Amino acid sequence: MIALYLLVLLVVVLIVLAYVIFILDIFLWKHDIDTSDDVLKIVISEIKETDYKNRNFIDLGCSKGSFCLRLKKQLPDLNIVGVDDNRLRILVAKLKNNFHKHKVTFVRKDIFNHDLRSANYIYTYLWPTILPWLEEKFNDELEQNTKVMCNETFLPNWEIKKQIKLFPKKKFSEYLFVYLKK
Ligand SMILES: C[S@@+](CC[C@H](N)C(=O)[O-])C[C@H]1O[C@@H](n2cnc3c(N)ncnc32)[C@H](O)[C@@H]1O
């Protein structure tokens, strides 16, 4: 009886500890908000406009991998790579990956050190200050016609192909900015 009580106590302590670590991680590190299912649907329809099978999608700043794994479940024929420089978040993403039938490749790396030349689709949900620097990297590395989808924040100099209102009912909705590399 005491052993069972101690086991339950241990599990509770571990769960509380995990929450504390995740909350500290959010405050001490870069923001960690997942893309919603509504936005996921929009991204999927953008990908489905093209011949996506066996092509390469990169989520720059994938956090704990929720977006990549939900996308992979819907489009198992798409090769998906998630990149994030946060050890804890990538560890959680890799752990979650084990429980999924269709696998995503998760890489712990600064997105600025990740080679983008094989990408056919790029997705970002990042702070606006990062986008001008990323734009330079995209100019250097992306192949022509790579589809770039930026949630909420945009590339300062690229021509926007589509600007999709993400929450049409909201007065101040965010947008998904869609680009094609020239
Ligand atoms: C808001 S989350 C986006 C999560 C996921 N892409 C989604 O849409 O659900 C942004 C993530 O980008 C990561 N990030 C920001 N700057 C980065 C950098 N320079 N290199 C790697 N990851 C970065 C953060 O660690 C964070 O986990």
Q: Could you say which small molecules are bound to this protein?
A: S-adenosylmethionine
- Between the first and last Cα atoms, what is the distance in angstroms? 68 Å
Radius of gyration: 18 Å
Helical residue percent? Answer: 25-40%
Mean pLDDT: 93
Low-confidence stretches: none
Domains, number: 2
CATH H level, superfamily name of the largest domain = Vaccinia Virus protein VP39
The CATH class assignment of the largest domain is Alpha Beta
User: So, CATH architecture of the largest domain?
Assistant: 3-Layer(aba) Sandwich
Strand order of the largest sheet: 3-2-1-4-5-7-6
The shape, in one word, is elongated
Task: Give the H and E element order.
Answer: HHEHEHEEHEEE
- Going by helix content, strand content and strand pairing, the class is alpha/beta
Largest sheet: 7 strands, mixed
| Percent of residues in β-strands | 15-25%
The CATH topology of the largest domain is what?
Rossmann fold
How many helices? The count is 5
How many beta-strand segments? 7
